């Protein structure tokens, strides 16, 4: 599920190259039409949809909404296949959760579906770092600052980052995304807590994992100006 194709998707996302992501989506859509039974291809198309939608969010809500919906549709098929179930579930959950923001009338159902997918993934693989990253991110987004729920989610994010440090980002058997995102998310959380040294450490780790990650570059530049 990883490999060169995923590396291209992640690089385009990290460098915020929307045009390259659009080309990759078009290519993968054609390949899926030719071989719809290839779950690895469907997963990567969903992954490309998700990354494209994340980049579109700040400027084009309609495009973002449709890409999140496309992602969920591809991964709905992937998560029914045992070999790819956990990874399909966690990415599908992320897409459904994002889609709920745009589709207000369906929001309750979409959020429930996202929670159900993530709960299944968590039950199947409670130490999968991508599962933990999404679970922690959701917890931090909804917990009140300083609450026990926020502390629990923060601890879970730290565990996700530690597990990413122990895992490979280049395996062809499992997805390689999440390392740089988890390190950056942890850096941001430390910064919010006033621990600039720890924040800098994790942001630098994010850039070691993905030197061209523009979001991490912006965070590092902001730290330099502090």
Explain this structure to me?
There is one protein chain. The chain is mostly helical and about 230 residues long. The chain has two domains: about 1-125, Alpha Horseshoe (Serine Threonine Protein Phosphatase 5, Tetratricopeptide repeat); about 135-225, Tetratricopeptide repeat domain (Serine Threonine Protein Phosphatase 5, Tetratricopeptide repeat), CATH 1.25.40. It has helices at about 5-15, 20-35, 40-55, 60-80, 85-100, 105-125, 130-140, 150-165, 180-190, 195-210, 215-225. Helix 4 (about 60-80) packs antiparallel against helix 5 (about 85-100) and helix 9 (about 180-190) packs antiparallel against helix 10 (about 195-210). The termini are far apart.
Write a concise synopsis of the structure shown.
It contains 11 helices and no strands. The protein is mainly α.
Give me the secondary-structure topology.
Blueprint lengths: L3 H11 L3 H17 L4 H18 L4 H18 L6 H18 L4 H18 L4 H14 L5 H19 L12 H14 L3 H14 L4 H11 L2
Helix pairs in contact: 1-2, 1-3, 2-3, 3-4, 3-5, 4-5, 5-6, 7-8, 8-9, 9-10, 10-11
Based on the structure, what is the oligomeric state of the protein chains?
Answer: single chain
Mean of residue pLDDT values: 92
Work out the radius of gyration: 17 Å
Domain count:
2
Distance between the termini: 40 Å
As a percent range, the share of strand residues is: under 5%
Q: Helix and strand succession?
A: HHHHHHHHHHH
The second-level CATH architecture of the largest domain is: Alpha Horseshoe
CATH topology heading of the largest domain = Serine Threonine Protein Phosphatase 5, Tetratricopeptide repeat
Give the structural class. mainly alpha
| Main pleated-sheet profile | none
Helix fraction bin: over 70%
User: Could you list the spans in which at least 5 consecutive residues all have pLDDT below 50?
Assistant: none
Say how many strands there are.
Answer: 0
């Amino acid at each position: 599920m990883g490999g060169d194709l995923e590396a291209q998707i992640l690089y385009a996302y990290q460098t915020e190259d929307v045009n390259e992501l659009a080309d990759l989506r078009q290519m993968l859509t054609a390949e899926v039409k030719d071989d719809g039974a290839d779950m690895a291809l469907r997963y990567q198309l969903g992954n490309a949809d998700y990354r494209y939608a994340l980049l579109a969010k700040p400027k084009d809500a309609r495009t973002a909404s449709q890409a999140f919906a496309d992602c969920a549709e591809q991964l709905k098929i992937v998560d029914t296949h045992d070999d790819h179930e956990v990874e399909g579930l966690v990415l599908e959950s992320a897409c459904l959760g994002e889609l709920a923001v745009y589709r207000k009338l369906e929001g309750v159902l979409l959020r429930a579906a996202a929670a159900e997918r993530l709960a299944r993934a968590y039950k199947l693989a409670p130490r999968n770092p991508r599962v933990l990253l999404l679970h922690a991110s959701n917890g931090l987004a909804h917990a009140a600052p300083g609450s026990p729920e926020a502390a629990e989610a923060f601890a879970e994010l730290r565990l996700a980052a530690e597990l990413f440090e122990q895992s490979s980002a280049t395996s062809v058997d499992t997805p390689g995304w999440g390392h740089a995102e988890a390190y950056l998310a942890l850096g941001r959380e430390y910064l919010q807590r006033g621990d600039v040294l720890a924040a800098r450490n994790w942001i630098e780790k994010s850039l070691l994992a993905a030197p061209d990650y523009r979001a991490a570059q912006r965070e590092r530049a902001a730290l330099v100006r502090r």
